[in-house]
Amino acid sequence: xxxxxxxxxxxxxxxxxxxxxxxxxxxxxxxxxxxxxxxxxxxxxxxxxxxxxxxxxxxxxxxxxxxxxxxxxxxxxxxxxxxxxxxxxxxxxxxxxxxxxxxxxxxxxxxxxxxxxxxxxxxxxxxxxxxxxxxxxxxxxxxxxxxxxxxxxxxxxxxxxxxxxxxxxxxxxxxxxxxxxxxxxxxxxxxxxxxxxxxxxxxxxxxxxxxxxxxxxxxxxxxxxxxxxxxxxxxxxxxxxxxxxxxxxxxxxxxxxxxxxxxxxxxx
Length: 268
Prior knowledge:
Layout: E1 4-5, E2 17-18, H1 37-57, H2 66-87, H3 92-111, H4 127-148, H5 150-158, H6 168-214, H7 225-263
Parallel strand pairs: 1-2
Helix pairs in contact: 1-2, 1-3, 2-3, 2-7, 3-7, 4-5, 4-6, 4-7, 5-6, 6-7
């Protein structure tokens, strides 16, 4: 079986899979100094979202073309099913621009995993999910303070209504930690873990199929296993498209739920 090299310097007698000295070597672009591939793809994802909606709505007409109709349908889904559907008509439209930007940016970033020229989801690097989760965290905390007042918002967390007095301190502590610490952490980790796991699985399937199939010309019948791995890779490829869409939806949906529980006092 042929070796898989991931670094220029490698001892094939001692290493089956050769690794670089640092992980950064896999993502740095030497001709741009310290800028790496992840940073560039973040910018590309944002520009693609801006470009799509600019192209869809730059010449709006009463009878929309295919691109305008698709753009309206996509925005309508986020507005009706997430912003207004979760937060409600009173506050939903206020947060619709953020939720729409969040959904489409994550969606494009996720789909980069299956795009032939990238094959790399930007959300599989924990820094981006953490950053997006922190924006949502700041937004729903500020929204809660504005809607309920500082004392009212944190008072509902630390001394939750509708709970027996004897349990209020314990439930309040749990609620405080859950809302202010667990929510942003779980939001970020859920997105990161799903995309990172899928990316690794797809890469392993593709590499395995390539290694097996590459041994066929030498007469190694074990290379036939490459067709099985290639079929599994195709299945994972299609599955990851669904995961990319679903995870963008879940992240945006939970962001809307967290905002809703902050702006609606009775939600507590």
